[in-house]
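pinging the channel bc i need a second pair of eyes. not urgent but kinda urgent?? the chain im working w is below, pasted from the shared doc
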Amino acid sequence: MGDGVRYIGGDERRARLGLRHRLAPAARAGTPEEVADALVALHGSDPAAVYLAVGARLTDAAGTVAETDRALYGDRTLVRMHGMRHTVFAFPAGLTAVVHASTGLAVAARERASLVKDMAKAGAPDAVWLKETEESALAALGRLGQATASELAEAEPRLRERFVYAAGKPYEGVHTVGTRLLRVLGVEGKVVRGRPLGSWTSSQFRWALAPEHPELPPAEAQAELLRHWLAACGPATEADLKWWTGWRVTDVRRALAAIGARAVSLDEGTGYVLAEDGDPVTGPQEPWAALLPALDPTAMGWQGRDWYLDPELRPALFDYSGNIGPTVWWDGRIVGGWAQRPDGEIVWRILTGEGTGADGAGGIGRDAETAIASEAERLTAWLGTTRVTPRFRTPVEKELGR
């Protein structure tokens, strides 16, 4: 890059990560809302991951479940909804309108068109019938407050209508209108996930009407989302931004221009930070350790991960679909994986360097192992009798969790 363009190396990027992602002990947060604000979005495809991501960053992790329940279902300062890449996240309530307009509208249009097309191919009722069913279901949900899909179908029986999807193909299946329609309504920002049917690890949720929010112009919303994300995760390349948002590269470039993002030089090429974020960032005074859950926002924050993850570790830590499992961190780098055994014990394995490690494999030095063991004890204490199995299993997690 040309003269005057600042270089940000891996050490500074890892320093930013420890501080801005609330992972260094001195940077930890007091509430789930502070964690979500720092990370922009908490992955919610695996319900337990939201709580585990919060607990890893709280000063007092003992109150993780109660405080996260309060934020999600009491105060509703966190909202679980579809977002980037058609994935479920928990967002700060103040960002729901931004996320909906910046990423949800385009996906929602495709999802509705796909549902109408699939129903037409199967000879199911038409779009007019679907619209009437939708309006009736939303009215019923308003009366009920929260409801499961089955409970909602009791109030609006047309949701039980079944149709054959992809008839004659290897992946042929039978769908219900309710299952597909609720998914569409979720992406459209009309409904959100409410309380789970079971504990905080349950993947079965009730549905609720989405909180009202203003309708923003998509380009304005994209610029605002990018501003938040670069504050938390900058610097990032265009490829990182395109991957994380799911936008077209033209949308990414327009949003970068709209916020006046500053170009910087990274080891992998050109990156971007906010215009006001040009000063060097120094890291925490002491190295830090963390045990982060599967799909943690830090581990999944960038497409280019070599600056915090040795490529040789990927096969052990990712599943076949590209979902990362539970990870062990030391001072800004992923160094291993962890799991919870059926008896509740938290076990971990260092996959880089030489030494003994907690279970006899790998190692990165006595200080690092001591700090990691302390984090494992901290996690064990607040999990108590709860058992957590990641929704997406990875090789090292499956081996350790036996």
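so The radius of gyration is 22 Å. and Residues 354-361 have pLDDT under 50 and may be disordered. — does that match what u expected or am i reading it wrong
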